[in-house]
Amino acid sequence: MDTKKLLGQRIRQMRRKNDLSQENLAELLGLDPNSISRIECGVHYPSMDTLEKLTKTLNVDMHDMFQIKEESAEEMRAFVMRLVSEVDDEKLVKIVRVIKLLV
């Protein structure tokens, strides 16, 4: 996977961890929501100014922003197992439906 996509995934992960929608984050950064979408999808790199704003808004160090790596199959399985063991029944049904659509 290329660096733009990995960075975009990392930003999406941190945004969600902060319980922000793309629209909320865009508003806090003074950007168009489509810009956030393009960054998270790996279409565009964020500018340095945007990266600095992201780190402040998401309360992370610049170093943490670039702690990106591709997860191994084992790590992904562990994540899915942990996720499904922690969610309520309603969310579990939704997760299973998505997985069934994908495989």
Would you mind describing this structure in some detail?
The protein folds into two domains: 3-65, 434 Repressor (Amino-terminal Domain) (Orthogonal Bundle); 73-102. The protein has seven helices and no strands. It has helices spanning 3-17, 22-29, 33-40, 48-57, 62-65, 73-86, 89-102. The chain is globular.
SSE layout:
Blueprint: H1 3-17, H2 22-29, H3 33-40, H4 48-57, H5 62-65, H6 73-86, H7 89-102
Helix pairs in contact: 2-3
Question: Could you write a compact summary of the structure shown?
Answer:
The two termini are about 20 Å apart. This protein has two domains: about 5-65, lambda repressor-like DNA-binding domains (434 Repressor (Amino-terminal Domain), Orthogonal Bundle); about 75-100. It has helices spanning about 5-15, 20-30, 35-40, 50-55, 60-65, 75-85, 90-100.
Mean pLDDT: 89
CATH fold type of the largest domain: 434 Repressor (Amino-terminal Domain)
| CA(first)-CA(last) distance | 20 Å
**Order of SSEs:** HHHHHHH
Number of helices: 7
Question: Given this structure, which CATH class of the largest domain is correct?
Answer: Mainly Alpha
Estimate percent helicity: over 70%
Judging from the principal axes of the Cα atoms, what is the shape?
Answer: globular
Poorly predicted runs are: none
How much of the sequence lies in strands comes to: under 5%
Please name the defining characteristics of this protein.
103 residues; mainly alpha; 434 Repressor (Amino-terminal Domain); 71% helix; globular
